[in-house]
Specification:
It contains 16 helices and twelve strands. By secondary structure, it is of the alpha/beta class. The protein has a six-stranded mixed sheet with strand order 3-4-5-2-1-6, with helices on one face. Strands 8-9-7-10-11-12 form a six-stranded mixed sheet, sandwiched between helices. α4 packs antiparallel against α5. The longest helix is centred in the middle third of the chain and has 25 residues. The radius of gyration is 29 Å and the shape is flat. It binds guanosine-5'-triphosphate and magnesium ion. The site of magnesium ion (MG) has 6 residues, from α9. The site of magnesium ion has 6 residues, from α9.
């Protein structure tokens, strides 16, 4: 996609609204603006009230802003037309631009141009898409930190260190006859070890980064009639699932997403666990167990008026620490239930009542803390598989370099490993670009970005 072509696209969704923006980018952007407006180009970066004509017909009155290369989002000459928000007007203005020599932009092409022109790196470009798709404030904060370059700066600093060590080792090779030493093996080792520590720390942010971008799954589990559907309804604030006094009411999983600890958490209400002769209920119970296997968090509910049963103890055994034990229907019992071993670990069982609302706020606070402590991502975290693979590749290269140092191999071999590590970080930030990687990333953008 050469940037000598002029491209055009709507930058806002097609619908009725107060305003709609059309972006024109490339060498003819300003020429197109001048022919549409029949006037001289407006001053750079000034909002100019402009009439737009095509074939002697007034199409709209708009605000035109002209950016001059390289001081624009893409780094090219760029024009933004803020039209009235009617899809018909937007279509006609775009058609006029096409008639004047522009072509419709590919998905993500504006951002791709920004990357190719060095206005931003690949991690920053990816974070634009994430920022636009963010559903919670924490997701937006994480995307914004990467757009600001928190991850890129860390990766670039490590890459610089490695390139510096490489050049010193290579210089030593060039002058080895004369016996010059530009870096001692001990110094090289210390700097590589430091780089490895920093790279590992970045790689370890992936679990949280991923959890924060994709959101979490929380499964509500327990015996029939424990109050699972009632709790789901209370947490989502609507009568989402059917509640009846008949054990075995829920069969299909009922899912609803709410925000907890700044992350989107999808709650799943499931069929009560028991031995069932009913085929349909049996399938529901299988689905409940499947969902529990893949869940990040499990809310295990026990009816306080029944108490913890042997079956509950058996179920709890296989949940390996992902569960919060919650006693429901606290309004039906006068004394607190005994604390079983499993509950002691999470600071005593939580008790709730859907009738009196007792304990619901406590439960929400507990969930909030759990999500923040175990899943919320720090600024600059890795957020996608492409980023993780690049950082893991860098780690591998650094480990190989240390192994080469240990086994007394000469500088040449160490340099090969270090190049591998430095290049992996180059691929991460897009300093080293590959056509297929770019089209993969920008293909997922929508048109106009
Ligand atoms: N007193 C009292 N009754 C409750 C409470 N929570 C739920 N119930 C009642 O317990 C019964 C079962 O509630 P559900 O929410 O349908 O229970 P469930 O765990 O989804 O049951 P299954 O779908 O059959 O597995 C209903 O009659 C509810 O009204 C509570 O906190 N206090
Ligand atoms: Mg139910």
């Amino acid at each position: 996609m050469p940037t000598d072509e002029t491209i055009v696209a709507p930058a806002t969704p097609l619908g009725r609204s107060a305003l709609a923006i059309v972006r024109i980018d490339g060498p003819h952007a300003i020429g197109i603006l001048m022919s549409l407006s029949r006037t001289a180009a407006p001053a750079v970066r000034h909002a100019a009230l402009t009439e737009i004509y095509f074939e002697n017909e007034l199409l709209d009155e708009c605000i035109a802003i002209r950016y001059e290369a390289p001081h624009s989002f893409t780094g090219n000459d760029l024009v933004e037309l803020t039209l009235h928000g009617n899809p018909l007007l937007v279509e006609r203005v775009i058609a006029a631009c096409v008639a004047l020599g522009a072509r419709i932009a590919e998905p993500g092409e504006f951002t791709e141009r920004a990357v190719l022109n060095g206005k931003m790196d690949l991690v920053q470009a990816e974070s634009i898409a994430d920022l636009i798709n963010a559903r919670t404030t924490l997701q937006a904060k994480l995307s914004l930190s990467n757009l600001e370059g928190v991850l890129s700066r860390k990766a670039t600093a490590i890459r610089q260190t490695l390139l510096d060590v490489i050049s010193r080792l290579e210089a030593a090779l060039d002058f080895s006859e004369e016996g010059y030493e530009f870096i001692t093996r001990d110094d090289a080792r210390a700097r590589i070890e430091q780089a490895l520590r920093e790279t590992t720390a970045i790689r370890e942010t992936y679990r949280r980064g991923r959890a924060t971008t994709t959101g979490l799954s929380a499964v509500i589990l327990g015996r029939p009639n424990a109050g699972k559907s009632t709790l789901l309804n209370r947490l989502v604030g609507s009568d989402r699932a059917i509640v009846t006094p008949i054990p075995g009411t829920t069969r299909d999983i009922v899912r609803e997403t709410i925000e907890i600890g700044g992350l989107p958490v999808t709650l799943a209400d499931t069929a009560g666990l028991r031995e069932s002769a009913d085929v349909v209920e049996g399938i529901g119970i299988e689905r409940a167990r499947d969902a529990a296997r893949n869940a990040d968090i499990i809310l295990y509910l026990v009816d306080a008026s029944v108490g913890l049963t042997e079956e509950d103890v058996r179920e709890l055994k296989v949940l390996d620490d992902r569960e919060l034990l919650i006693y429901t229907k606290s309004d039906l019992v006068s004394v607190a239930p005994p604390t079983p071993a499993a509950a002691a670990e999470v600071g005593g069982p939580t008790q709730i009542s859907a009738i009196t609302d007792h304990g619901i706020d406590d439960l929400l606070r507990q969930l909030d803390t759990l999500v923040r402590e175990r899943f919320a991502a720090p600024e600059g975290a890795l957020v996608n598989e492409r980023q993780r693979v690049a950082v893991a590749e860098c780690e591998d290269g650094l480990r190989a370099a240390l192994a080469s140092l240990d086994s007394g191999l000469d500088e040449q071999m160490i340099v090969v490993d270090l190049y591998r590590a430095a290049n992996a970080l180059g691929v991460l930030v897009g300093a080293i670009t590959r056509e297929d990687v770019l089209s993969e990333i920008f293909g997922k953008f929508c048109i106009g970005k």
